[in-house]
Write a structure and sequence with these properties.
By secondary structure, the protein is mostly beta strands. It has a domain of 130 residues: Lipocalin. Helices cover 4% and strands 38% of the residues. It is built from three helices and 28 strands. Strands 21, 22, 23, 24 and 25 form a five-stranded antiparallel beta sheet that branches. It has a four-stranded antiparallel beta sheet with strand order 1-2-3-4, with no helix packed on it. The longest helix has 6 residues. The protein is globular and about 50 Å long.
Length: 385
């Protein structure tokens, strides 16, 4: 765990740009690709040498208020990414800009781009229908590859060709999915025939929806509200008394999207304000509840283990700390079939909201604390010394 190299790409303290979490990935050519702000860099993995940097389109926003929150890649190696924005004139950094700027919705429409990693040039770009919070998700259906996104009101998809050209698919239209009082969700998840997600990626005054739409026929869709009857704890309600759009009381908020297990057709959804995690089984006739437990997380859920021994791993914010500004987290392993708790870590420094505990081998996980420490956590039997 000794550092091999370190590479400073930009310094947002000096240039004043929006410091939003980026993403690093590796493609089959062995190079590292790093997206940060409105830039995409290609790095040599052994030395960290910057091989190329591409400035991505910023639409109608200033570059300093633009970020590309992650990227994906097609089966042919084409990089796919999408922009989000900070309100002009706002200086709030990180994800807090999406909540704490005077009017976070006063931003331009997002831009979807495809990039050739060999030439580091933009292949194609299109303006999306509004601000799209979540990353682009790719899935293959019927011999074609598609880009799926959660727009401000519904799911949308674009066909992507082998050479990276984008084409909207207006015939695949689920209709309005965001209900009154809700906010759009983050990324969608492709699971077998289904495109699934949950609403309320920003604080909302209405309960969260879990949504499943058929890839074959967008008119086939299921919607449930797994936490509608679960009250928000009073200390959380007070903290979110004016956080929903229009300064209303928020009753739902989840800055991460749900997780899905295609082997078992089970979805794991969560809502940070009532502090719940639920398992839902998707069938040909709808979404069926399997279990629901008390657990407050703002992070993604990791699904680990073989299909007959599935476990899920996620953080749990200890009471009475407030989701999103909590100083501590605990890591919990649960039986994926029953929801029963298998193991729990000691209290740890909080991790960055909307990230994930990273799975390793034999049930171990890596946990990056916001104070700069990296923890390796190993669940052990209660009978072990």
């Amino acid at each position: 765990m000794e550092p091999i190299w370190y590479r400073q790409l930009i310094n947002t303290h000096e240039n004043g740009e929006w410091n939003y979490p980026g993403t690093v990935g590796i493609l089959s050519d062995g190079s590292l690709y790093v997206i940060y702000g409105y830039r995409l860099s290609k790095l040599e993995p052994d030395s960290g040498e910057i091989l190329a940097t591409l400035e991505l389109p910023t639409g109608a926003a200033a570059p300093s208020d633009t970020a590309y929150n992650g990227f994906n890649a097609s089966a042919d190696g084409v990089i796919v990414a999408k922009s989000i924005y900070r309100e002009a004139g706002c200086t709030v950094q990180g994800g807090d800009a999406l909540l704490q700027c005077p009017d976070p919705s006063a931003v331009p429409d997002s831009v979807l781009v495809t990039v050739d990693p060999k030439t580091m040039a933009v292949i194609d770009q299109t303006t999306l229908p509004g601000l799209v919070l979540g990353r682009a998700t790719l899935g293959r259906y019927g011999g074609r590859e598609y880009v799926y996104l959660f727009s401000p009101t519904t799911f949308v998809r674009y066909a992507i060709s082998a050479d990276g050209m984008l084409a909207s698919d207006p015939d695949w239209d689920p209709g309005p999915l965001v209900e009154p009082g809700q906010t759009p969700g983050w990324a969608v998840v492709v699971m077998n025939n289904w495109v699934i997600s949950q609403s309320n990626g920003l604080p909302a005054s209405s309960p969260l929806s879990v949504i499943a739409v058929s890839q074959a026929d967008a008119s086939t869709k299921f919607v449930v509200h797994p936490f509608a009857s679960d009250p928000v704890p009073p200390f959380v309600a007070r903290a979110f008394s004016q956080q929903a759009p229009g300064g209303e009381q928020a009753m739902s908020f989840m800055p991460s999207t749900l997780s899905a297990d295609p082997s078992t057709n089970v979805i794991y959804a969560m809502d940070a304000l009532p502090g719940k995690i639920a398992a839902l089984h998707i069938t040909s006739s709808g979404l069926e509840s399997k279990w629901k437990v008390d657990q407050t997380t703002t992070e993604f859920i990791a699904i680990i283990g073989p299909p007959d021994q599935r476990a899920i791993v996620a953080t749990d914010i200890p009471r009475p700390e407030i989701p999103g500004v909590n100083k501590h987290d605990e890591v919990v392993w649960r039986n994926a079939v029953t929801g029963g708790e298998l193991a729990r870590s000691p209290r740890l420094p909080a991790m960055t909201s909307a990230t994930m505990v990273q799975p390793s081998y034999s049930g171990t996980v890596f946990y990056p604390g916001t104070d700069g420490q990296l923890f390796k956590l190993q669940p052990v039997s209660a009978a072990s010394p």
